[in-house]
Amino acid sequence: MPAAGSGSRFGAPVPKQYAPLLGRTVIEWALAPFLADSRCAGIVVALAPADDVWPQVAARLPCPIVTVTGGAHRSGSVLNGLAGLEGRADDRDWVLVHDAARPCLPPEDLEQLLCAVGIEECGGLLAAPGADTLKFGPAEGLSHVERTVDRTGLWRALTPQMFRCSALRTALEAAHAAGRIPTDESQALEWQGVKPRLVAGSAANLKVTTAEDLVVAAAILRARDEASPHTSVMEHSMRIGSGFDVHTFGAGEFVMLGGVRVPYGRGVIAHSDGDVILHALCDALLGGAGLGDIGQHFRDDDPQWRGADSAGFVRGVLAMLHERGFSVINADITVLAEAPRLAKHREEIRSSIATLLGVAPDCVNVKATTTEKMGFLGRGEGLAAQAVVLLNSPV
């Protein structure tokens, strides 16, 4: 399983394979079908050199897994993974390569692949027949249709892909020797003149690329779980957490709200950057997980947090939650202040919080209200924020 990518398009503080998904991480869901299959003799995961999240995941797995350092490209990671099988796999053993960011592999698709390709010497892969009309537009970003592509005979490659150990290693080494980088394992075999078997797979076997994909993956896994109530793989419960924070205005020209710099003729008096939204959010996350409050973990008399970016507090809290198997479902934020006005900044704040939490933007709501001129907030002496979060919790 190649898992050395950074997932730059995912736009979250952790690589997409470690994004929380219904009480687990994406990679845990991706590994689950193979950990549960007695025909799987062993698993090798190729990791980024500085991966400090994997040990937390490995501690939750039912058995030890071999790890190797990944390469600069997918094919390099797979080659390193094959090297990690030295002494464990024979040349003619079957090897399956599965994406760490594919958490929804249906068990029946895996079974179909094993049965269909097991009788084929050329190997094969799961693939989905082309369904959408395909347009060709050569420019990146905004483009124009140059032509419609005939989709007859087109398939969308999925994983796992299944080949003999020696054949796959030889094909990848030959590609690298020729200066070619295959985008999947099948292509490397194709360059050797091999025609791998196509096995029709479900479109539900999606690859998580964006935060929105996580929402779809969660829906697929929930539907699958509800359809098989006696073989549930999602033992979880829900937790609600709430948080509140307030800061007095002081000297300055801006305030930080949800990780966004909002211009204003004043700042706030605070030990860190004084981001009331993110401080309230930290307390809500910690409260939902039963882990105390922000002051216990990031003391306001500790010099290391002087002027600190509050986004770092959120990342630290999320790391605590992920280690314990929690994941964030949604967050609802209310800002209480006479000023500054947030209308122009609301969507940027919402997007910033969603990125921090690793959820889709529509899983974050940001509201603003006043106290109708009452109290210290009504007198414009400061601002406050309240946060409520829903967490998915392992039983």
Question: Would you mind describing this structure in some detail?
Answer:
- This protein has 395 residues and is of the alpha/beta class.
- 30% of the residues lie in helices and 25% in strands.
- It has 12 helices and 18 strands.
- It has helices spanning 26-35, 54-58, 74-83, 107-117, 165-177, 185-190, 211-227, 276-289, 294-297, 310-323, 346-357, 375-378, and strands spanning 2-3, 20-21, 24-25, 44-47, 66-69, 94-97, 124-129, 134-136, 147-149, 155-164, 197-200, 236-250, 254-257, 260-263, 267-268, 327-336, 364-369, 382-394.
- The strands form 6 sheets. It has a 5-stranded mixed beta sheet with strand order 15-12-18-16-17. It has a 4-stranded mixed beta sheet with strand order 6-10-7-11. It has a 3-stranded parallel beta sheet with strand order 1-4-5, covered by helices on one side.
- β2 (20-21) and β3 (24-25) form a beta hairpin.
- α3 (74-83) crosses α5 and α8 (276-289) runs parallel beside α10.
- The chain is elongated.
- It starts with a strand and ends with a strand.
- The mean pLDDT is 89.
Question: How would you briefly describe this protein structure?
Answer:
This protein has 395 residues and is of the alpha/beta class.
